[in-house]
Specification:
Blueprint lengths: L25 E3 L6 E5 L9 H12 L3
Antiparallel strand pairs: 1-2
Amino acid sequence: MTESTSYCGTPEPAGPKPEPAAEGPFASCVLCQEPTEYPESTKGITLCPVCEWQEAERMSCSG
């Protein structure tokens, strides 16, 4: 196996990501309630950078 190939494919994103907000108020993370980088007006599930990274890690190679 070469460096350019991997065991797990890269999953397609679920949908378009909202644009990060330049300044507050920021939406709260639905998992840990920490502020996210998205404005409060963002519809749908908003995750903070830590929870977003952990969720991507769980989804990338789930077996």
